[in-house]
Amino acid sequence: MRELTSGRVHLREWRDDDAPFVLDMCSRWEVQRWVGAAPRVLGGLGDARATIARWRGHDDGLRGVWSIRRRDDGAPLGTLLLIGILASGAELPLQPSGETEIGWYLHPDAWGHGYATEAARLVLDHGFAGGLDTIIAVTYPENVASQSVCTRLGMRHEGLTDRYYNMTCELFTATA
Ligand SMILES: CC(C)(COP(=O)(O)OP(=O)(O)OC[C@H]1O[C@@H](n2cnc3c(N)ncnc32)[C@H](O)[C@@H]1OP(=O)(O)O)[C@@H](O)C(=O)NCCC(=O)NCCS
Q1: Which is the closest atom of ligand 1 to the Cα of 105?
Q2: Which residues line ligand 1 (CB under 6 A)?
Q3: Residue 111 CA: which ligand 1 atom is closest?
Q4: Which residue is closest in CA terms to ligand 1's atom 18?
Q5: In this structure, are residues 82 and 72 in contact, taking their beta carbons and an 8 Å threshold?
Q6: All domains of the chain, ordered by start, with CATH?
Q7: How far apart are CA 25 and CA 77, in angstroms?
Q8: pLDDT tens digits for the chain (176 residues)?
């Protein structure tokens, strides 16, 4: 997967030895409560390794899941996802909608510095340069912090939707 670098952040693939950081970030309810349709915290290093394997499985050459690092010292900050989004439906497992979503979550120690927005800007530009026309983001209706990232990125707020994940979400779109 393509490594991406801006002024303060460096994005690279997830590696097995990142498991302790993933566990530290994803065992916190203040992070995980906003992640996915059925939020849960990770319970141990085995869970973290499985999460990393799942993230790596999203790599299709353009899309994928990146580890966000601070550029100057390589410190891990969080994760940045550019992946296919699943459509709502009666059939389980849910099926791909054909659309691409961007998502982010950072370790709480890294909140409040603009790192999520900086990393997401890199990945939006990468996705559009790679030929994507539209990239969407969905958030829980109460997730003001993530909606603020969407707004800082210049994404358009489309209101509530139930089109994805069998959930009601706030929908944001960015177009090339
Ligand atoms: C969503 C999440 C990534 C947002 O993180 P964040 O740090 O608030 O977002 P940004 O990276 O855009 O940083 C913006 C903040 O950094 C501040 N900041 C400080 N220095 C900055 C700089 N040099 N440049 C830009 N912003 C800076 C901004 O003022 C802003 O703070 P404020 O909201 O108090 O005004 C984080 O809250 C999180 O991980 N939440 C849990 C998981 C989650 O909800 N994921 C999204 C699921 S949809």
Answers
A1: 39
A2: 31, 34-35, 103-106, 111-117, 139, 143, 145-146, 148-149, 152
A3: 7
A4: 113
A5: no
A6: 4-175 (3.40.630.30)
A7: 9
A8: 999 999 999 999 999 999 999 999 999 999 999 998 889 999 999 999 999 999 999 999 999 999 999 999 999 999 999 999 999 999 889 999 999 999 999 999 999 999 999 999 999 999 999 999 999 999 999 999 999 999 999 999 999 999 999 999 999 999 99
